[in-house]
Amino acid sequence: MNILVVDDEKNIRRVMEIIITEMGFTFTGAEDPEKAMEVLEKSPVDILVLDIKMPKMDGISFLKIVQSQYPEIPVIMLSGHGTVSGAVESMKIGAADFIEKNGDEEQIRSVLRKTAEMIRWRKSADEGDFLFRDSKMIRLVKKADSLSGKKINLLLTGENGVGKEVIAHYIHRKTMGKGAPFIPVNCGALPEGLFESEMFGFEKGAFTGADTKKKGKIRAAEGGTLFLDEIGDLSPKSQISLLRVLQENQVTPLGSVTPLSVDFNLITATNKDLTMMVMNRKFREDLYFRVAVMELDIPPLRERREDIMPLAVHFLHQVCTKYGLGKKGIHPDLEKFMLHYTWPGNVRELKNFVERLAVLSEGETLYYKETDLKNARMDLNSLLDKNEKEILSRVIRMTGGDREKMSRLLNIPVKEVKERLQRHEL
């Protein structure tokens, strides 16, 4: 693991070099941001340790550049006498942690060790949107890591948009391996009448329209993970059908009389309080105990604010790369807004918000506009105003004119996309 230390004081760099090499890491030093940028362009860097007060460019300004161009690198700020307020400000805009120059050696080691652990977790996650720095998420990932190699029925709880499927993917890879199948099922979108045919599969001729046999979701998950999202939306009849499978480890396709053994890992998720549903007789108690052998509650984004800016910068880098928008940054006023907004739609809302701002902004910086950002759930009407035709033309170029992609990107129905295009003769 390569740690780059940027400080204009040679003796500070020397002290950091001793500590870093003793910990078994690789040390690289730079006396100013210009030299540091040369290192970043030529060599892989895992952690950046950055002095707040430097003569050519202050550390907070360079932090913003690094976040824009290298969002995956965690930055630890070096705080000297009189720069504590700067360290606090840097944490608010996305620094991973800070070290006091006059602090003891153990404090320095502890911060470096914690940041290195976070990187190892992120690398093991291998999931683009699975970024975390907040202590609540670190504790959650530690619990998830304890499941490695174990097949335990797991229930994930949390509000819509917190990333339950992302966490499920992570646990799947830790438990079953990357090559094993991961079969997601949205229980809320599965009508009661189709539950058994979709989940159990069917034989040819089992019912009208069954022209070929179908394996079913459960058998497709053989040797892997079945992920049942929104399990609290299952009808009473579907709950009984699922319970029988979990009790017997067998499934009988429709049109067959021969039960087939099944072996899969089960992860379920819900945004509802299943214990309350059990008390109100809306969810079977015996099924609850089957699916919730272990439970992980994913905190909402408003309760893990340290994750907001790293995620925002990551999503911005992602959308700019995807659509060839060049490099864009986030204005400090917009950062302030994002850090104080409650994000009722959680990570999903943050991602959509950043993507739409990036697509609709013309310059290299995303700005805070109070008239546009009365809330973060923007629609096209509140953003386009007089520039509608120009923005629609830009989105057409980015998506190749695909109406479905335009609809998702602009967060409006396909029908409305067509109407607006016709209005401007595009």
Overview of this structure, please?
This protein has 19 helices and 14 strands. It is an alpha/beta fold. The protein folds into three domains: 124 residues, Response regulator (Rossmann fold, 3-Layer(aba) Sandwich), CATH 3.40.50; 163 residues, Rossmann fold (3-Layer(aba) Sandwich); 121 residues, Helicase, Ruva Protein, domain 3 (Orthogonal Bundle), CATH 1.10.8.60. The strands form four sheets. A five-stranded parallel beta sheet has the order 2-1-3-4-5, sandwiched between helices.
The CATH topology of the largest domain, please?
Rossmann fold
User: How many distinct domains?
Assistant: 3
Largest sheet: 5 strands, parallel
Task: Write down the Rg.
Answer: 25 Å
> Could you tell me the strand content as a percent range?
5-15%
In angstroms, what separates the terminal alpha carbons? 52 Å
Strand order of the largest sheet: 2-1-3-4-5
Question: Which class do the helix and strand fractions yield?
Answer: alpha/beta
Give the name of the CATH architecture of the largest domain: 3-Layer(aba) Sandwich
Q: Whole-number average pLDDT?
A: 84
Find the count of extended strands (DSSP E, 2+ residues).
Answer: 14
Task: Give the overall shape, derived from the CA principal axes.
Answer: globular
CATH class of the largest domain: Alpha Beta
CATH-assigned homologous superfamily of the largest domain? P-loop containing nucleotide triphosphate hydrolases
| Proportion of residues in helical segments | 40-55%
How many helical elements?
19
Taking pLDDT < 50 over at least 5 consecutive residues as the criterion, the unreliable ranges are 370-383
